[in-house]
Amino acid sequence: MTAPTHTPLFPEFSAVPDSPDAVLAGLDPEQRAVATALHGPVCVLAGAGTGKTRAITHRIAYGVRAGILQPASVLAVTFTARAAGEMRGRLRQLGAGGVQARTFHSAALRQLQYFWPRAIGGEMPRLAERKIQLVAEAGARSRIRLDRNELRDVTGEIEWAKVTQTVPEDYPGAAAKAAREVPRDAAEIARIYTTYEQLKRDRGVIDFEDVLLLTVGVLEDRPDVAEAVRGQYQHFVVDEYQDVSPLQQRLLDLWLGGRDSVCVVGDASQTIYSFTGATPEFLLGFRTRHPDATVVKLVRDYRSTPQVVHLANGLLSQARGQAAQHRLELVSQREAGPEPSYTEYADEPAEAEGTARRIRELIDDGVRPSEIAVLYRVNAQSEVYEQALADAGVPYQLRGAERFFERPEVREAGMLLRGAARASDPLEDADLPAHVRAVLSTRGWSPEAPAGSGAVRDRWESLAALVRLAEDFSRAREGATLADFVAELDERAGAQHAPTVEGVTLASLHAAKGLEWDAVFLVGLTEGTMPITYAKTDEQVEEERRLLYVGVTRARFHLGLSWALSRSPGGRGGRRPSRFLDGLRPGTAARGRTGGRAAAGGGVERGAGGRRRRGPVQCRVCGRTLSDAGEIKLMRCEDCPSDMDEALYERLREWRVEQAKALGQPAYCVFTDKTLLAIAEVRPSTESELSVISGVGARKLDKFGAEVLALCTGSGAGDEAVAEDLGK
Known about the structure:
six-stranded parallel beta sheet; 11% strand; 46% helix
């Protein structure tokens, strides 16, 4: 496998350039053109993997180091705290540490807090901590009952209305015009929206959308405040410009105040957040509004192999609409790699097991788990992959779960390390990693991972990530002290830049935006899921295509695409592969065309891998056909009575602990809790009976079958435990 060419998110371990010209070193001609275009409006059209963040941070740094830009006069805005933190880290390392890099909301909130006493007077309202609770109360007061999913979706509708500057009475018409898939009657949502706004006023709170609206209002109504802001910031950089909403564009226009010192960066082919109010219209219309703009296109792809780039380009070549007319044809700068694979499975559990098997093979070949991702369209698809990876002995992490630095154990570790730094002596600091290990060992870290899964394992993983970070930090910064490491943690916490947790990433396609891995598996690519069922209009379908494009371009080297013909084992295999793969996978033609260019190599594999096709799995108690992954593993409905042999279950758990210790792996890598429960309920006496239990594949049957059966029948390895049970 070729070495990855990606740049670390926090390049804190490299030397600061010693001159303005040194800032430009290593940039390609197009990136250099961006970095040296310091005057007037600039529009950077940057394809996936082309180094856009590198280009714009070097542009700012070059301007600062050359004395053309004053650091405090530059405001760079983007869309996530993580991206803003990455930008600050890069700028600091390039010698431009005084530049403000923030999200739109963060920059607006800072200005609002500062100017509120002058512009409004009194104390600024506090931010609502839980918007969804206010929406729930608004629904109840409006006598409209909302279930959990409706509550989430109605909250999203209110957010969309506010960023598109739509007031409650105009919401029904605006939603219809935008062809939105509304979760309830539009008039009901308008009533809830009205009540929600009244509740906020009554309680003296504001939400995040109000931060932008109020900042816009203050800048429009108070010329003195607007002039103060414009006097502070003379140069603006906007990253991910294809994702700005009308409200954010209005705020940007007020910041600029008619000036043209702005650099925008984006890619219309990566517009995937229109449901939040984002629109590529401002990016696509930039040259119309600024006829004298400098326009630079970045198309050299440093992330992905030619095979991955070829597929990405082919995917967009079939796109339609305004964004498609401005697509960028990427050119890979990497050496050749393997062809993307296309795999068809009989059912979703088989797809998950096949994906886990391929991941296990990659890990065995030397690919780190943290460099592998499984991406899906909706979060509900994750469960079956969590189970399959656990069964295959592969550690994983869910992206979009609780933020790393907000975990209780990480907050506690930070306080302990901060206290230790104040009390440390220079001799202890001579071995920074040892000092960190000593502090964290008092809170649950140990050299060996604990057996099993759950909270104890999660806590250990968090602390282990901090230990690994301390080791990397110490190697890169000779003589670093514990105080230096604590400062690094504070910087990372502010940027939401978590250290790497060594596990395969499970994430939705939306959550994967801005990330990349050596190996990516795009799963569940069937009609109805990709594109999603509720994508009705041509533009909604095209956004689904762009979402798949984002997924494809996350892969550096290995790319797998797969789909299942039915949801559950034995189901009617009536599903069809996604239309977006037509004309790309071999043997297919693009829809609506007489012919299609197939991707070179590759091929559609049948993913059964020699497994027999399983029939429908039925509950052993009530006979109902099962579809939930957890219920299939138990072979019964979750709420049906269990006839588990508790003594056998305890013997199995004790045996699993010993096996895990011997193998040096977590206990769930031997068998998961649900698999042990199923074994204790079925009490198999033959290999055939054991093999039909979900989670007991051929590999585990060969490795553990004899011992498990001995425990089940009370012979051999289980004699001692049985004797103990009989003697009680």
